[in-house]
Amino acid sequence: MKLTTAGESHGKALTGIIEGLPSNLEIDIDAVNRDLALRQSGYGRGGRQKIERDRIEILSGVRNRLTLGSPLCFAIVNADYKNWQQYMAPEGCDVTGRTLTKVRPGHADLTGMKKYCQSDARNILERASARETAVRVAAGSIAKCYLKALGVQVGGYVRCVCGAEDNNVYPFSALAAAKEQPLFMLNDKVQKQAMALIDSLKEQGDTAGGIVEIRINGLKSGFGSCMTYGEKLDARLAGALMGVQAIKGVEVGIGFEAGRLPGSKVHDEIFANGGTYVRNTNNAGGIEGGMSNGEDIVLRAVMKPIPTLMRGLKTVDTATGQPCTAAGERSDVAAICACEIILESVAAFTIAQAVSERLGGDDVKEVIKRYGELV
Fold first, then answer.
1. Helices (DSSP H) in 8-67: which residue ranges?
2. Cα-atom radius of gyration of the chain, to the nearest Å?
3. Residue among 75, 74, 64, 78 at smallest CA distance from 25
4. Could you tell me if 129 and 121 are in contact, meaning their C-beta atoms sit under 8 angstroms apart?
5. Which of 122, 141, 261, 262 could cysteine-pair with 35, CB 3.0–4.6 Å?
6. Range name among 30-44, 70-84, 125-139, 316-330 with the lowest pLDDT average
7. Interval 58-63 mean pLDDT
């Protein structure tokens, strides 16, 4: 299974092509659109989310909601393009309008300009923008349809926003309730603290990051490999999560805490139970030796604060070489809820890839049968 994406933040549309889906898989278009809406939600978001109302338009590979086995091509139209056409049109436009040379610290602007020999950061930021993640949410939501057919679920919640942290442990069944909360948090007291922090940062022209926890429930053991490093499931998941804009760290299971504890308090002991094997703890986060072990897969990722600050940081204007204040492109204070949905989506797609590689199958019934035969 493979995903290819294209599109710019203020271009005509964002597009994606998914190859490798089996035929006769039902695509829940309403669920895809719900995930796209959730990506645009959350306390601390800015004005761009009021302009765009993201919805998927499937262009090929699906008929009557069922996949055909051919590449699934889809688009998400940028409603804001009408306001940017004179500056962004591929057929010809005014490239001197909306230029950006006051490069933003923490963004791709300066490094991208140097790498791709550009004098206008607009040619970098349009693709580097987190707007691109709308495509990955749509693709991940389609991957969830594939996993759902096998009884595998993906969920998550926000654990921390700018230091306001929830250290409680929740069962997978409790995670869905997070989507009904303004910050996707499950602890009301911590959530109120986080919202107050966001309000304060907004007044200061500052931004916030946070920590998200993602879980995969119902995946059988044996996905991934201990034989080649490129197939290790934890490595693939960590790479997928780190591939999301603004992510600066990923943990599996108890993560860095494993370096602070002795082995007797880290490794999950194994017991026999009626011909099966069980673990009473899940410090490994559902992955041992690069393979799923049948327990919930537990992932955490750290999102850095949004690099575009309304008060601006010190930088250099690449057009003049003079010191200046960084340009402002948008006004989000926090986008941690969007981050949670995006991370759910990329994790789902990565798991679907690993499952597809092991099971194969041209038709979804073949896939379900082969999955059911696994011990």
1. 29-39, 48-51
2. 22
3. 64
4. no
5. 141
6. 316-330
7. 98
Max Cα distance, the chain (Å)? 73
Residue range 233-260, pLDDT digits in tens: 999 999 999 999 999 999 999 999 999 9
Band of the pLDDT at 53, cuts 50, 70, 90?
confident
Nearest alpha-carbon partner for 193 in 163, 221, 167, 173: 163
Nearest to 209 by CA among 296, 289, 87, 303: 303
Q: How far apart are CA 286 and CA 298, in angstroms?
A: 7
Place of tokens 């602007």: 109
User: What type of residue sits at position 210?
Assistant: G
- Quick check: 38 and 141 in contact, CB under 8 A? no
Q: What is the DSSP string of 113-136?
A: HHHTT-S-THHHHHHHSGGGHHHH
Handedness of CA 203, 332, 154, 35 (dihedral sign): positive
Element (H, E) at 247: strand 247-252
Q: What is the pLDDT of residue 262?
A: 97
Q: Is 101 left (phi over 0), alpha (psi -120 to 50) or beta?
A: alpha
Give strand pairing partners of 276. 273
DSSP 8-state secondary structure symbol assigned to residue 209:
-
Angle, helices 336-359 vs 233-242, to 10°: value is: 150
Residue 160 host element (H or E): strand 153-161
pTM of the model as a whole: 0.95
Q: Do 202 and 334 meet the contact criterion of CB atoms below 8 Å apart?
A: no
CA distances from 23 to 285, 362, 363 (A): 32, 6, 5
| Residue pLDDT, tens place only, 189-210 | 999 999 999 999 999 989 999 9
Contact 215, 172 (CB under 8 A): yes
